[in-house]
Amino acid sequence: PFLVLSRPEGQRLDVPLASGSQVAFRALGTVLSNSPLPFRHEAVCAVAALFWTKGGFRTRSELPAFIADLGVHNVPKEAWLAIAAAVSRHGHEACGYSLPEEVVDDEIADVLARGMSFDAIPPAMLTKERMVSVLQRNPSLLAVHPMPAGLEGKVDGEVAFAVATSKNGKGMEFVPSVFVTRRFCRRVLSVAPAAISHVPPEFLDEDLCVDVVSANGSLVNDVPDEWRTERVWRAAVANNASMFCFMPQRYRDEETCMRVIEASPDQFTHVDYPLRYADYLRGVRVSGSLLARVPLEYRDEAMCRAAVEKQADARAHVPKGIAEK
Tens digits of per-residue pLDDT, 176-204? Predict the structure, then answer.
């Protein structure tokens, strides 16, 4: 694409925007610096919107060259906002450009805080809210040593909690140990149960683990071995019947098995107790391929028809006599 600029005096400038030419952008900046204000603002915003876009300019030198020749004071706020959005979206290091500190006001700083690092935010503009915004997107920054500039003295329990509950609890991995107490862990797990995989076992108890798996049964495999008690397993299976296949055999009594297949009929393949015809029928209605696990004496026409209607390849498990019908 080309940006074509025409001056009232008849001058014309064609800028090949896709070429990534530093010379072209320098020339553009020089021409625009002497253009009428409304036209200059509109053109600069159009160029800024191209930053880090397909067909736009991406190198570390073109944008600084353009702005240097245009003059920072000639770049409207809308253009700085567009550049800030690109920096926060693609990363300060990848873009290779830092906005001049004098142009970063609260609105622009908030845009920069939607990124994955603190590098683009002037230290004076790094408030606790902006720090949390970045850390929730990239909690690993809290584990960097030495701590990134601007964070010293600003990380407190509130910030640690925001990080711990970010990324569905995965941020807990990066919380400094000074904040990790029993009380802190209980508070985090009440909001982000998946954080349990990063909670020290000594801060857990059976009641807390029951609460976690009652919220999300699939987390039972993240519970430390010493806390995977019968009560915890039953709570997990009650929440998510598909966890039954992981449940230790010693906890699978008949009552539990029947309750599981009521909730999730396709789990009958993991039940060691005698089942009724109706139990198998409900199972093949969930997954026709389970017909292969139904005893032959139960594979009558109704059972096979239900399986094939659910899944055509279940025909491979239909007894010959039934298939001929």
Answer: 999 999 999 999 999 999 999 999 999 99
Q: Is the CB of residue 42 less than 8 Å from the CB of residue 49?
A: no
Q: What is the mean pLDDT of residues 9-29?
A: 57
pLDDT of residue 144: 77
CB 38 within 8 A of CB 45: no
Tokens of 87: 């920096």
308 vs 288: CA distance, rounded Å: 6
d(CA 224, CA 232): 11
Q: 97 and 64 in contact (C-beta within 8 Å)?
A: yes
Token pair for 197: 């995989």
- Alpha-carbon gap, residue 156 to 12, rounded angstroms: 57
**pTM of model > 0.85:** no
| Distance between CA atoms of residues 325 and 316, nearest Å | 15
313-320: long-range pairs with CB below 8 Å, 24+ = 313/288, 313/289, 314/284, 314/288, 314/289, 316/292, 317/289, 317/291, 317/292, 318/291
Cα–Cα distance, 59 to 92 (Å, whole number): 13
What gap in Å lies between CA 92 and CA 98, rounded to an integer?
7
Q: Is 13 in contact with 35 (CB distance < 8 Å)?
A: no
- DSSP for residue 141: G
How buried is residue 316: exposed, middle or buried, by Cβ count under 10 Å (0-12/13-18/19+)? exposed
What span, in angstroms and rounded, lies between the C-alpha atoms of 264 and 309?
A: 19
For the chain, the farthest-separated pair of C-alpha atoms sits apart, in whole angstroms, at: 95
